[in-house]
């Protein structure tokens, strides 16, 4: 993924804390499943910080999604972590359908790699 030697911070939290973060940083009400906070602008030529960024996952929301989708809790958390990391790397499913397609393809590729390792 082109980010060797980069660090990642992961916070697992609950819906109450996630709702606070979602409102504080995105101005959105309520909890969400995952938030990503990059340390640098995505696709920046020169790496300034060894820190890639922060990914925050609500385990409450992950548990609900796991039940709703009929997937294991572990797979749900992996899926959300992949999603958050891709946001740190500059993928953005909200800006266009084409970008959403690219992000989905990369998510599927990475999930497949994890499943092969597991």
Describe what this molecule looks like in 3D.
It is a single chain. With 118 residues, the protein is α+β, with helices and mostly antiparallel strands. It has four helices and three strands. It has helices spanning 15-26, 59-69, 73-88, 97-117, and strands at residues 7-13, 34-38, 51-58. It has a three-stranded mixed beta sheet, with helices on both faces.
Largest beta-sheet characterization: 3 strands, mixed
Helix coverage percent:
40-55%
Top CATH class: Alpha Beta
Q: Could you say which structural class the secondary elements and strand pairing correspond to?
A: alpha+beta
Number of distinct beta strands: 3
Shape designation: globular
Which fold name is given in CATH as the topology? Collagenase (Catalytic Domain)
How far the N terminus sits from the C terminus, by CA atoms, comes to 20 Å
Q: Low-confidence segments, ≥5 residues, pLDDT <50?
A: none
């Amino acid at each position: 993924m082109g980010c060797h030697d980069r660090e990642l911070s992961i916070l697992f939290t609950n819906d109450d804390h996630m709702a606070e973060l979602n409102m504080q940083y995105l101005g959105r009400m309520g909890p969400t499943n995952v938030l990503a906070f990059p340390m640098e602008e995505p696709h920046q030529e020169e790496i300034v910080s060894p820190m890639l960024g922060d990914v925050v996952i609500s385990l409450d929301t992950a548990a609900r999604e796991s039940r709703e989708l009929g997937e294991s809790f572990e797979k749900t958390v992996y899926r959300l972590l992949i999603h958050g990391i891709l946001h740190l790397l500059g993928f953005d499913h909200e800006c266009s359908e084409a970008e959403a397609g690219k992000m989905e393809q990369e998510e599927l590729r990475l999930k497949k790699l994890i499943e092969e390792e597991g």
